Amino acid sequence: MNKMVTIGVLAIACLFGLQSFGNDGGTSPTIQVDTVCFSRDILPMLNSNCAMSNCHDAISHKEGLTLTSYAGIVKGVKAGNSATSAIYREVANNVMPESPYTKLTAAQKTLIKTWIDQGAKNTTCTVTNCDSVNVTFSTIKPLIANNCLGCHNGPTAFAGIDLSTDQNIEDMKEQILCTVLHASDCKPMPSNGLSLTSCEKGMINKWVTSTSTGNIQQGEPVVQSCSITPNVVKDGAIIHFQLEKRQMMTMSLYSYDGRKIRTISSEEYSSGQHEVPFSAGDLSGGAYFVRIQTGNSIQSLMFTH
User: Fold this and answer.
1) Is the pTM of this model over 0.85?
2) Alpha-carbon torsion angle 223, 297, 8, 54, nearest 10
3) What does residue 230 show for φ and ψ, rounded to 5 degrees?
């Protein structure tokens, strides 16, 4: 087995309960909550951390291993016997990932070992407690850890996008939303054709549109009922929002990669509902964000053109 890149923090992912990444077809058995689930715990981890370009993706498939699907992953394991499984031996003995990448934690190794010893089954998990309404940073962080940190961790982060700190995640939340929604101009993530569930995408969308940099852990909204109509903008659009009290607000237009295009409005608004129109006829096709700032707090609304 060849080089595997660093695997991000995953211990909390078992408790969080991600679901329904793609598999290779057929009927997948249902498992109990206290067991390791392939689609939730194993596939996102290996895809994020091992199925990189020039490693174990579908194009490179180093040493014959493609770790983007169940069919490819089981070629590196012996069901029911982790001790003789190549994938587990390499990570358990810290052979992989190689320096400068971070070795797996004990919890991560245990996940792989347990899954193999349980039969290395292609299990999917039905999640009934996914909440895309009551979203805070603490509920978003496991999603990032399980699906992004393998590629975007520390000084070796892919494309220089480092999501290893809370502040970095906050600073790049707009790009994260753009990529997980597979919007135009944004590289689809997770990679290799996998996707978050609709509920998980909804969670990230809620977090981006309602959290503030001044209080990222609690995710308390500064402005209520933010929206842009229409969602697909041609010549112009309207920003709708509601305030509980009079506030100074600045609304600015940004490209998906964080480049400020112009200020839409900067003035004091009274309490109540408001509508602010803006033009977009000069924009090229792609994904954009309107940032609404009050003091140190920022909220973002995404639209496509």
Assistant:
1) no
2) 90
3) -75, 170
